[in-house]
Amino acid sequence: MSDVPSDKPGTPPLIEYPTVYSFKVMGKLEHGFAEYIRQKFSRLMGTEVSRDSISENVSKQGRYVSLTVSVYLLSEEQRRNIYAEIHTDKRIVYYL
């Protein structure tokens, strides 16, 4: 028997919704990137994402910035839709 969760009926979800979820988004350190991401998440969420919901960490070489965006998710479908959308964004170099 495996301890790995699956999508089978009766299996508890990995994440229980609604929940506060943190997305990590990385891009080149350039003027306006954090605001661009804040506005993108506001559009995806359909509600304002405050600047206080985003923390920023600049790489040692100062070329990249990692943003942690914390938002209130209602469902797994919403989480997957956001990941699908940020996957297509050319300004986002990497995401978790």
Helix and strand sequence:
EHEEHE
| Overall radius of gyration | 15 Å
Strand arrangement within the widest β-sheet reads: 2-3-1-4
Could you tell me the mean pLDDT?
A: 91
Strand content: 25-35%
Distance between the termini: 29 Å
Note the main sheet: 4 strands, antiparallel
Number of strands: 4
Helix percentage range: 25-40%
User: Helix segment count?
Assistant: 2
Structural class by helix and strand composition:
alpha+beta
Low-confidence stretches: 1-6
Quick rundown:
The chain has helices at 33-45, 76-87; strands spanning 19-28, 54-58, 64-73, 92-95.
What key attributes describe this structure?
96 residues; four-stranded antiparallel beta sheet; 2 helices
How would you describe what is shown here?
This protein has 96 residues and is an alpha+beta fold. The protein has one domain (27-95). 26% of the residues lie in helices and 30% in strands. The protein contains two helices and four strands. Strands 2-3-1-4 form a four-stranded antiparallel β-sheet, covered by helices on one side. Strand 2 (54-58) and strand 3 (64-73) form a beta hairpin. It is elongated and about 45 Å long. Mean pLDDT is 91; it is low at 1-6.
